[in-house]
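User: I'm putting together a teaching handout on how multi-component assemblies are represented. Below are the sequence lines for each component of a complex, exactly as they appear in our records. Could you produce the 3D structure of the whole assembly as structure tokens, so the students can see both representations side by side? Please keep the chain order the same as the input.
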Amino acid sequence: MKKDLPSATSEQGLAHKLASSGMRMTAQREHVYHTLLQQTDHPTADEVYLRAKSAMPELSMATVYNTLDALVKCGLIKQVNVERTASRYCSNMNEHCHFFCEECGSIHDVDFKKDKGELPLKLPRNLVPTQVDISLRGRCADPLKCPNRNRN
Amino acid sequence: MKKDLPSATSEQGLAHKLASSGMRMTAQREHVYHTLLQQTDHPTADEVYLRAKSAMPELSMATVYNTLDALVKCGLIKQVNVERTASRYCSNMNEHCHFFCEECGSIHDVDFKKDKGELPLKLPRNLVPTQVDISLRGRCADPLKCPNRNRN
DNA sequence: ATTTATATTTAGAATCATTCTAACTATTGA
DNA sequence: TCAATAGTTAGAATGATTCTAAATATAAAT
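Assistant: Of course. Below is the structure of the complete assembly, with chains in the same order as your input.
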């Protein structure tokens, strides 16, 4: 399995993006961010906590929540809410949306087409959207064999 | 203000839809359903509880939750999750999506265009969606004057 | 009508994810 | 090196929702 070491690129990107939101770079933030980059499987805060804690045992849950918030605010990760259970976090920052398999609980990224025109909505002039969210639910081809079964 | 009495139509629709999901018609369910029809403003479970309770004081919160679930399962109402706070409920069953104003907290229904083609997604063959959800966030023209300010 | 089986309601306890608190520690800039 | 500020921590608190177990209502079958 390929586990990238913290790359200079992502470190600098992190420090820079944090700074430009008036936030400091810390060991915890760096570590949580890299934990997210290593396994791009839409973990919950709790899962991030468990993964990150193994290499940084003093890490607290509160810091994980704080850091995830910070990273979302910096535009380095996305918060994914396809279910009403715990939020999940996504380090894929390409524009995409999410498919939730109701059978196996996995979440799959779905890209937009190159030329995505306008959405077919009768949007009144008085409503000005800054964000559009599309989410799909259904089943993957074979949920029982899904490699992401209950984990993606 | 126009408050429709329980119409024969909606009562029968309710009884029938409940029955076809193997559920019984009860006074509580009827009352909660009509409470939802009377004010189509995306109330939370708690708000439904307060409104419904005034005319049926013995009503419990648990029953409101049970009933809302039942109505969602019967296809008589929709659960709306534009925020991670309490779910809201919508009795508009025309196909539509929701706009959430981050300024005033109001939720507005947005209809689809007649001919909504396909969504511009690169959907892999192995993912079969049964449901597509679009949600918008932004601001309404004048959130301060929004008639639905913090309540819609 | 009575009985029986099953569904529903209820209050309150329990749960889960998340946020808050207040003391402590680290980082930055003067 | 010090002061100011930001970040971390454990644990308590919160809020929405679900669970529990006893009481009640409904429907179906005598």
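A couple of points students might notice: Confidence is low (pLDDT under 50) at residues 1-6 of chain A. The first helix of chain A runs from residue 8 to 19.
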